[in-house]
Structures are given as structure tokens and as C-alpha cells.
Design brief:
binds 2-hydroxyethylsulfonic acid; binds NADPH dihydro-nicotinamide-adenine-dinucleotide phosphate; about 250 residues; alpha/beta; seven-stranded parallel beta sheet; Rossmann fold
């Protein structure tokens, strides 16, 4: 029987690539995001190859999260794999110049949103004594870089929660892993720079950045190990990147 994967932030980037890859491998999919038209496009594309259900909600709104997950039809209620991927950076400025709205968006989305979704889904995994949670962190959750302040804090929280989940869920036979990418070319920088696509483009110029498909491939590897194998976490860089702050541009 096919496993069901529940992917937050499936409307673009890493989440979308993961949905596309998992569909090819016959996972049933619950795909989540705020942009309804993107969810519909994915539903159309992927329901040709697997069973797909979409849920439109904002992870920052705990009532919406609960209502959306409660509304799942019977065929999709049993979630085998939760991929906590939804998140973004908002802004890149010294802490004394940071915007409170940006800070709220990052703490509420990247940290509290991940918790709200997990809180609704974990009990069924505990009850079944089986399940897998993949948390998408970042190199920003392992290091702090200039002007990254609150985004880095939010991803350090994801790193801590990943460890916390593994400890607390250990006796319930639930696997918990984190993926910590470096620079991945997605809509991430467009969002960080609030639609300034020229500035966003420069982030990925002068070297070959990771692509969303590279990370999807790693996520698929992690969730397809035998059940007794649990990868704690993985850091993945583009070859041109050596740390959060060391990037070799224009090498060729
Ligand atoms: P994208 O901007 O391409 O995708 C972000 C996804 O998250 C979208 O599907 C978006 O959907 C969803 N999302 C954002 N905020 C919310 C919200 N409040 N409620 C529901 N869904 C939300 O970026 P990436 O694919 O790059 O990002 C995915 C994850 O990977 C994030 O957690 C990011 O921090 C992390 N990451 C990214 C890296 C990079 O360099 N790109 C590197 C390391 C980690 P919608 O707008 O439809 O709601
Ligand atoms: C995204 C990668 O380096 O912009 O998490 O923080 S970085």
C-alpha cells in the first residue's frame, strides 16, 4: 500500500519538487500552501500519476491548520510522512533596522507554523507507533550570518525542535530527520527581498546554486531508508559554498 506524505509549502521550490518526485515514486500526497491556483495546478499535474489532495491554509493560523487537517477525507487521513517545509526569510538587515512585521512573519511561520502542523499530526503517529517527520531547516539553523539575525534564530529553533521531536518521540518509534540546505535557487530570495527580482537574481549568480530537485532527491533518500535507519540531519551545500558565509563566485 502506498504511503501518504503531507508536504507543507508545496506550491513552490523545495516543497513542489518534493511533491513531483514523490508522485513519481507513488506516494499519496497531501499538498499544502496558501496559493490556491498553484495548488490546483499541482493537483492537475500530479493526480495523473498518484492520489493527491490539496489543503489551502496559512501555517501561522492555528485554527486554519486544525480545520484544514480535520477536513481530510478518509483516504488521506492517515499521514505516514510529514514534511515540515513551509517557511521563508523576510528581509536581510542589521538587527537594529529589522522590521517587526518581518520578524513576526518568520517566527510565526517558520517556528510556530511548524509546531501547529506537527501538533495536529503527531498524535496519530503516536497512536500507530509509526511515522516519519522531516523538518526543513537551513544552514541558517547551524550558523548565524550578518543581517540574518531573526531568520537564523527561526532556523536554529527548527534545529532544536528537530532534536526535541526525536527525543520525545523516540519511545513511539517515530523517525525524525532534518535537512539543512545552503543556497537553493527557488522563490526564496524573491520573498526575502519582497519581489525585488533583480536583487534576488544576484544571490544565485556567478556559481551553480542548488536546485529544488537536488533537495527533493535527498529528502526522498532520507525517507526511503529501512525503518531501523534514522538520519538525524544533513547539511547540503552547492559545491561553490563552504559555509553560511563562504561562497566562491565566478570560479570559471
Ligand atoms: P519558496 O519561497 O520557493 O517556497 C516556500 C514555500 O512555503 C511556498 O510553497 C509557500 O507557499 C510556503 N509558505 C511560506 N509561508 C507560508 C505560510 N505562512 N503558510 C503556508 N505556507 C507558506 O522557498 P524554498 O522552497 O526555498 O523554501 C522551502 C523551505 O526551505 C523553507 O523552510 C526555507 O526556509 C528552506 N530553505 C531554503 C533555502 C534556499 O536557499 N532556498 C535554503 C535552506 C532552507 P505559499 O506562498 O503558497 O503559501
Ligand atoms: C536559506 C539559505 O543562506 O539564505 O535558508 O540562509 S540562507
Amino acid at each position: 500500500m502506498s504511503l501518504t506524505a503531507f508536504i507543507t509549502g508545496a506550491t513552490s521550490g523545495i516543497g513542489k519538487a518534493t511533491a513531483q518526485l514523490f508522485a513519481k515514486h507513488n506516494f499519496n500526497l497531501v499538498l499544502c500552501g496558501r496559493r490556491q491556483e498553484k495548488l490546483e495546478q499541482l493537483q492537475q499535474e500530479l493526480s495523473k500519476i498518484t492520489k493527491v489532495y490539496t489543503l489551502q491554509f496559512d501555517v501561522r493560523n492555528k485554527e486554519e491548520v486544525q480545520k484544514a487537517i480535520d477536513s481530510l477525507p478518509n483516504d488521506f487521513k492517515k499521514i505516514d510522512i510529514l514534511i515540515n517545509n513551509a517557511g521563508n526569510a523576510h528581509g536581510l538587515s542589521p538587527i537594529q533596522e529589522g522590521s517587526l512585521d518581518d520578524w513576526d512573519a518568520m517566527i510565526d511561520g517558520n517556528v510556530k507554523g511548524l509546531l501547529y502542523v506537527s501538533k495536529v499530526i503527531i498524535p496519530q503517529m503516536v497512536e500507530r507507533n509509526n511515522g516519519f517527520i522531516v523538518n526543513i531547516g537551513s544552514i541558517a539553523g547551524k550558523e548565524v550570518y550578518p543581517n540574518g539575525n531573526v531568520y537564523c534564530a527561526s532556523k536554529h529553533a527548527v534545529n532544536a525542535l528537530n532534536k526535541a521531536m526525536r527525543i520525545d518521540l523516540n519511545k513511539h518509534n517515530i523517525r525524525v530527520s532534518a535537512i539543512h540546505p545552503g543556497l537553493v535557487e527557488t522563490e526564496f530570495s524573491d520573498v526575502r527581498f519582497k519581489g525585488d527580482s533583480e536583487r534576488a537574481k544576484t544571490v544565485y549568480q556567478g556559481y551553480k546554486a542548488l536546485q529544488a530537485e537536488d533537495i527533493a532527491d535527498i529528502i526522498h533518500f532520507v525517507v526511503t531508508r529501512p525503518y531501523h535507519v534514522n538520519i538525524e540531519d544533513l547539511i547540503i551545500y552547492p559545491t561553490a559554498q563552504a559555509s553560511a558565509t563562504i561562497l566562491h563566485k565566478d570560479a570559471n
